[in-house]
Amino acid sequence: MRARVLLLAGLLVLGGCAGARLPGSDPGDALTVMGFGLPDEIAKTRVDLFKKQSGVELALSEGKLDAQQFLSAVAVKQPPDVVYLERVEIGSYATQGAIQPLDACVKERGVDVSAFRRSALAQSSAGGKLYALPDFNQVNLMIVNNAAARAAGVDPAAFATGDWARLADLAGRLTGRDGGRLTRIGFDPKVPELLPMWARAAGVSIVDDRGNPHLDDPGVVEALAATAAMVRAQADWGDYRAFRETFDLFGAKNPYVVDQLAAMPIETWYLNVLASTTPDVDITVLPPLDRQGNPYTWAGGSGWAIPKGARHPDRACAFIASMTSVGSWVAAAKARKAGLVAKNKPYTGTFTGNRLADERIFAEVYEPVRYPAIARGVQVALDLQDRAFSHLPSPVGAEIKKAYEAATTRVLLGRQSPRDSLAQAQREAMAALDWRR
Amino acid sequence: MTVKQARLGYGFLSPWILGFLLFTAGPMVASAALSFTRYDMISPPEYVGTDNYRRLLEDPKIATALVNTVVYTALHVPAAIVLALGLAALLRRAGRAAGIYRTILYLPVMTPPVALAALFLLLLNGQHGLLNAFLGKIGVDGPNWTTDPTWIKPGLVIMSLWTVGSTAVLYLAAMAGVPNDLHEAAALDGAGAWHRFRHVTLPMISPTIYFTVIVNTIASLQFFTEAYAMFYTPGSNASNDADAALFYVIYLFQQAFTFLHMGYASAMAWLLFLVIAVITVIQVRVSRRLVHYEGDRP
């Protein structure tokens, strides 16, 4: 306790001497929000609506939530009133006590929790309590380069991802080479980052509902072996990754347009990018398939939470309830659409963690865009929303991620077998969990 | 010195003393205390004795990070010193244009480290990077500098030489201070350019070389920004290099700010302090035989 007092005293002296305000601290009586800016109409409209309805002023600390800034602010009891964060971070912060449960907040504000997507809610909860309200929701889609697929005699619409052996063979056939250099990746399984999605296709969750890792589960081993085989069918991992790093994902020369890629899973936001930069791109958007051939997907996204010790918890609750409400989302979607139309760009919809908001947006605001491939993609994304799975929260979510990514890399480099590598990852994740507990 | 003069002196020194106490000594004391605790920034620090130090011995990534850091240092420091010496020697011959070349040589040092990292990710790309394109022209099949674990550290060393200008400028200044008499005497004795450089210039500028070796070694042992920007920022497929770019300070940063193991990270910081202290002591001892001082040894 004495060490903590000394530390806090030191931090306060430093803050006082520098005449500085700690990040997230309260300028006046405004509601302080960390990790959230106003980059577009979606954010601005929702904030304006809240300010108009409540009369509360906001002080935004823009940029992605910085863990060090946030936790320092909580430690010295000067936390922001609200934090905007990636939902995968919620488990760790909840376990540490850095954010507070929202059950009383949602009850008091009459928030219809059942309206939120199941996977988003699961990610926002820990120990049976709700710690965040979901904001955006991103699901993974399979996007196929039609020209590349047809050139290899493959019907893009039949690009099935449930048969892993066939997919590895297809990946090899679709790979392009010029001498020793890669010119096209045939199929990018997006490992290591999407290993949990492939494991889920085999019916396995790498984290259970108590936050314990299961990285050495036979289903995860099978998924890693299969995805590593897909990569090896195309190139050595070093060549493969170096080539992938040359992609200009956000530009007019994106890998689909310049034929650097035949297919890969990618999140919904990429439809917006394609619609904005190259709406005529010749692609087919498909749902990922599990081992039984059923559509499924992997979801992620952002959420709103109230830190422990927030000075204005009632206003914070009102704010996050407003930001995630159906009315707020619909108004934001209308503003976004108007902004894009003014720039002569198509509006591809807004995908939120709130199912009722999505229903209203796609019924009242969204109009199928005149680019058939993009329009089809939007529909696929919409259909997948309730079929999505996501990372379950864990006190050691960051350590689990590091462990399975490193394990995947060892296998891709040929240094370990999938079984041994994931066994090591499981030991590392369990050691982290033991340490944390 | 009178008491009044002494007080005045301390008065002028006080901004630095205050800054040192608050921003260097204070955090060091706090870090030393935290290294004996388990602390996640939210819950109170919990005293765990020497657990963190024991864990240092059991954590295989500590050895990986230390080896990576030492290998990088062993590659970077000699390469930077030799290249800087060569550039400084060339600049000495530039005559009236030396000022312009000196400025050009120093300009890359002004590049922000993150921009430098982004630039070299492109230049060093194994598939379509400029370096391999150049090597291809002379018949060499270049490696994957940024994705092959074997070549990641050499690639980072190549990148680090971008800022060798700062060391070269120091050598240039030191060379300007070497008396011409010595060169003339050596030339009269039949010494050629290389022998004059080897036996006159090098000994005369050895205190500067010694200084840059120490400074470069410490900086290399704390190497962080560029490697972190290249391999460990979100979206950069952090673990894809099988820890080939896991330098000690990067691992320390991960433990502190990704995993929130502040106590363990503090213990790591003290281990690094110890490693740097030991290496510096060795360098000081070796310098007694190799560094030439005119007049009394400082």
Outline of this structure?
The complex is a heterodimer of chains A (437) and B (298). By secondary structure, chain A is an alpha/beta fold.
Topology:
The complex is a heterodimer of chains A (437) and B (298).
Chain A: H1 2-17, E1 31-34, H2 41-54, E2 58-61, H3 67-75, E3 82-86, H4 90-96, H5 103-109, H6 118-123, E4 125-126, E5 129-130, E6 133-145, H7 146-151, H8 164-174, E7 176-178, E8 181-184, H9 195-201, H10 218-232, H11 237-244, E9 263-267, H12 269-277, E10 283-286, E11 297-305, H13 313-323, H14 326-342, H15 355-365, H16 372-384, E12 388-389, H17 397-412, H18 418-436
Parallel strand pairs in A: 1-2, 1-3, 11-12
Antiparallel strand pairs in A: 3-11, 4-5, 6-9, 6-10, 6-11, 7-8
Helix pairs in contact in A: 2-13, 2-14, 8-10, 9-10, 14-15, 17-18
Chain B: H1 3-34, E1 37-38, E2 46-47, H2 51-58, H3 60-92, H4 98-106, H5 113-123, H6 130-137, H7 149-160, H8 165-176, H9 180-188, H10 193-221, H11 225-231, H12 248-258, H13 262-290
Helix pairs in contact in B: 1-13, 2-13, 3-7, 3-8, 3-10, 3-12, 5-11, 8-10, 9-10, 10-13, 12-13
Structural description of this entry:
Chain A is built from 18 helices and twelve strands. In chain A, strands 1, 2, 3, 6, 9, 10, 11 and 12 form an eight-stranded mixed beta sheet that branches. Chain A has a domain at 140-297 and 390-436: D-Maltodextrin-Binding Protein, domain 2. By secondary structure, chain A is of the alpha/beta class. In chain A, helix 2 crosses helix 13 (313-323). In chain B, helix 10 (193-221) runs antiparallel to helix 13. Chain B is globular. Chain B has one domain (39-290): MetI-like fold, CATH 1.10.3720. The model of chain B has no long low-confidence stretch (mean pLDDT 90). Chain B contains 13 helices and two strands, in the order H-E-E-H-H-H-H-H-H-H-H-H-H-H-H. In chain B, strands 1-2 form a two-stranded antiparallel ribbon. Chain B is mostly helical and 298 residues long. Chain A binds chain B through residues 1, 3-4, 6-7, 10, 13-14, 17, 67-68, 71-72, 74-75, 92, 96-98, 180-182, 192-193, 237-239, 241-243, 245-246, 308, 396, 398-399, 402, 405-406, 408-410, 412-413, 415, 432, 435, and chain B through 22-23, 26-27, 30, 33-34, 37-38, 40-45, 47, 121, 125-128, 141, 143-144, 146-149, 237-243, 254, 256-261.
